[in-house]
Structure formats: structure tokens, C-alpha cells
Amino acid sequence: MHLDVDAIRAQVPALKSGSARFDAPGGTQTPQPVIDAVAEALAHPLANRGQLTEGERNAEGIVLAARRAMGDLLGTDPGTVVFGRSATQLTYDLARTLARDWGPGDEVVVTRLDHDANIRPWVQAAEAVGATVRRADFDPATGELAPERIGDVLSPRTRLVAVTAASNLLGTRPDIPAVAELAHRAGALLHVDAVHFASHATVDLAALGADTLVCSPYKFLGPHLGVLTGRAALLESLRPDKLLPSTDAVPERFELGTLPYELLAGVRAAVDFLAGFVPGTGPDSRRARLAASFAAIEAHEDALRRRLEAGLSQTDGVTVYSRAVRRTPTLLFTVAGHTPADVSRHLAGHGVDAPAGSFYALEASRHLGLGDGGGVRVGLAPYSSAEDVERLLEALDSLG
């Protein structure tokens, strides 16, 4: 399936700045339909959700439409879609809630491959109740996190396994269904960080085997907020902190305060924008259209990644750390004789946006031997072009 990159780029106003953007793993640029949806929501009456006034009805419609859109994107029941300020905030809230049933002798498993937002909330929640944290290591030579590495640290006392579906630092895509099987066999829950994964592949909660999952719409062309979903029966069983007068219904039970209606309108628009990438796949099922779009996105991004990897392999002094067999189009590299920050600064001077650092995957960066400074990360998006890749490679060649 063909991705019309020129048509996509024409809908993203920020690309008119002229930079070749490789910073998508930190947040994509915003398409015009998403901008318009946010503005339209703010231009019409809004109030607390209800059915009496126009403002109440507008708010209710926006929330329900956003839940349906994210349900289609994640292959989950819209009634299990929870919105929050960020994936980090939602993970902290979930960790504190689940930890109420943990205690001394219980164990939680995290991995060194993960973003700290899928490590620290679980570590701190476990420490608060006296539970034990066990860590699964990835192979720094390959970037792979084999399921058996997680299996090695499981025990009958394991209560939860937290793992990323795709590393935001290296792009590594662990075998999540295999991890789910191991975790569930041990009697543990599986929490999946899909923040990076959901930008590049079709997400299916049941197929992954996840009990809970988080993602961030601003990583896939939407506005800045977070989303949590999970098995309906599990969410119904949890009792998070909430205000006394607020509803006890799921998913509202997990949402603190009034939702940002204008951002939810943008979420729905972002999902619809993604669903329209491959014309002719039919109007009946947004889920099917999204699957077609992500197949086209993967083909496009993988082709650019291969060209980028070939170019980097021919550039003196470059070491690429993204080596897993299954990975997203995200590459971490260093250049001998230059700090990552200096390389990023040089690229920026040539109109190429490729940031440097550990990108909150601090344990992964240290495990690779890169310390807290990390490396230069280049990430592709649906709007990335072959011309962008050539500009990056040419700028690197001029580094000297």
C-alpha cells in the first residue's frame, strides 16, 4: 500500500519551516485537521458534560467521539479508554492504585530497556509498600530484550510485569505476546508502554496480551495528553483515589477533574487523519482503515530506515546502537570524536532536527555504556521524506 507523503506533508504546517525533522519520537508535528478540530471545539459552546444545554451536549459528544476513536486505534472497548495529562501521569496513578494490594514478599518486574516512565512509577509504588523490584536486562550488543530475560526474573510472587512494546531510545520491539504468556503463567499482570509503538504499528490490546496499556496521542499527530486502556473487568475492580462527588463509573473513575475537551477533539481528528492515509479501503470500519494506513506507514518508514542505516554505515566514526531484528524506524548513534550534543548542534546548523540525549530511557542508555549523555536519536514519521534522509546524511558527512 502506497503512502502519499507529499499529500501528508502538505497538511502539516510546521514543515513549512524547512527543517528536516527527525524528532518525531519526542512528539510529531500537528496536521491542519487536528489544529482545526481543536479550534472548532473552542469556538463553540462548551460546558461540563450533560444533555441539557448546547455546551453540555457538545462536551459529551466530543468525549464519546474521542473514546470511540482511541478504541478503534487500540483495538479496545471505548468504555475502557481513560484520558489523562500524560502517559507518565496515568502510569503513576495506575501504579499507586495497584500497589494497594501489594506488600512485603510481592515482586514487580521492570526492564532496563524502558523509558523511565515505565520504570520509576512501579519502583516507587513497590518501595512504598515494601514489595521487591526485579529488573530484566536487554542485550546491549544487539538491543534485543528476549522474553526469557523476563522469564528468568519471574516467580510465583510476581504481581506485575511492566515492559515497553517499542523502545523510544533504540526502537527495539520485544515479543510482547510471548512476554504476556510468561507473565500470565506466573499469575502476574502485564502493563505495556505503547507510547512509541503506537506511532508506528497497529495496536491490538488483546493480541498483545496486555492487561493495561498506555500511549500518547502527541506521538501520532495528535495533541498533548495521555491515554490508558485495559481489560474492562480489571478496570472495574480497581479503586483509584477520586473526589467524593465524582462518578464511580469506568472510565471516568480514573479521570481527575474536567477533561480538556478541545484536546479530545484533536485526538479524534488525529485518528481520522491517520485512517485516511490509504484511499479506497472503504468507509465502513475505521479500525480496518487504520490497519491499512499503518501497513503503509510501516512500509514507508522501513524503506527510509534502510536507506538511513546504509548511509550511516558508510559514514566514518558512526556507531549505531539500534540493532534489534524487529524495531521501529528509530536509530540511536554516536560519532567518534564528537559528543552527541555537538553532533546535534552541527545538524541543527544544517537545518536537520535530530536531538541528543538519553530521552528519559536513562537505564537503557547506561546499560549501553553511553552514560547519561546518550546519543543522537533520529526518528522517522509518516511525513518523513527521502529528501530529509539525504539532508541528514550530507550534514553528517560535513561534520569533519
Describe the secondary structure blueprint for this structure:
Elements: H1 5-10, E1 20-21, H2 32-43, H3 54-74, E2 82-84, H4 87-98, E3 107-111, H5 120-129, E4 132-136, H6 147-151, E5 158-164, H7 176-185, E6 189-193, H8 205-208, E7 212-215, E8 226-230, H9 232-237, H10 261-275, H11 286-313, E9 318-320, E10 330-335, H12 340-349, E11 352-353, E12 356-357, H13 362-367, E13 375-379, H14 386-397
Parallel strand pairs: 1-11, 3-4, 3-5, 5-6, 6-7
Antiparallel strand pairs: 2-8, 7-8, 9-10, 10-13, 12-13
Helix pairs in contact: 2-10, 3-10, 4-5, 10-11, 11-14
Task: Write a structural description.
The protein is of the alpha/beta class and 400 residues long. Helices cover 39% and strands 14% of the residues. It is built from 14 helices and 13 strands. A seven-stranded mixed sheet has the order 2-8-7-6-5-3-4, with helices on both faces. Strands 9-10-13-12 form a four-stranded antiparallel sheet. A two-stranded parallel ribbon has the order 1-11. α5 links the parallel β3 and β4. It starts with a helix and ends with a helix. The mean pLDDT is 97.
Rg of Cα set: 21 Å
**Percent of residues in helices:** 25-40%
| Class of secondary structure makeup | alpha/beta
The gross shape turns out to be globular
Distance between the termini: 40 Å
Approximately how much beta-strand content do the residues carry? 5-15%
Number of helices: 14
Keywords:
400 residues; alpha/beta; 7-stranded mixed β-sheet; 4-stranded antiparallel β-sheet; 14 helices; 39% helix; globular
